[in-house]
Amino acid sequence: MGIVGTIPALLWVLLAYLGVIYLGDGAQTLNRELFSFLLISGAPVYITVNGLLVLVGLVMLFFEVLKATRISNITVVDHMLSTFVFIGYLLAFLMIPAAGNQFFLMLVVMSLIDVMAGFSVSITGARRDIGLNEKNLG
Predict the structure, then answer these.
(1) Is 113 inside any structural domain?
(2) Does pTM surpass 0.90?
(3) Do 122 and 75 meet the contact criterion of CB atoms below 8 Å apart?
(4) Counted domains in the chain
(5) Beta strand 33-38 with 44-48: parallel, antiparallel or unpaired?
(6) Per-residue DSSP letters for 17-63?
(7) Cα 65 versus chain centre, distance
(8) Could you list the pLDDT tens digit for every one of the 138 residues in the chain?
(9) Is residue 41 part of a domain?
(10) Best CA proximity match to 61, nearest among 53, 51, 73
(11) If we measure between CA atoms, which residue out of 44, 26, 24 comes closest to residue 35?
């Protein structure tokens, strides 16, 4: 998979969010409507930059959970990097005014879920492997 595969996908969302804040007009850019569409009911749906980044974050979280299911030598490094990304999200949420909103909080929680899921899946897999080895010994 290489070095690029070990980089947590949610890091790219964090970098995109910070890029929008610092290269755009801050919170004004985040609240800008990108596009809208009508549902069959006639209700309009407006997608903002904030909303799009949360949607992208959800997709990245899916891939991160899939990545957590593999067992390899690089898994520990992947968990450490995911933890560092979570710390980055948390610091940005607490220290950057434009990141102090409900959309970024959702991204922080997604990053926390990524960290917890990675450790949980690894621990469960390790228990299963140990259990299989014990049955083979006895």
Answers:
(1) yes
(2) no
(3) yes
(4) 1
(5) antiparallel
(6) HHHHHHHTTTHHHHT-EEEEEE-TTS-EEEEEHHHHHHHHHHHHHHH
(7) 9
(8) 566 677 899 999 999 999 999 998 888 899 999 999 999 999 999 999 999 999 999 999 999 988 888 777 777 888 899 999 999 999 999 999 999 999 999 999 999 999 999 888 877 766 665 655 555 555
(9) yes
(10) 53
(11) 44
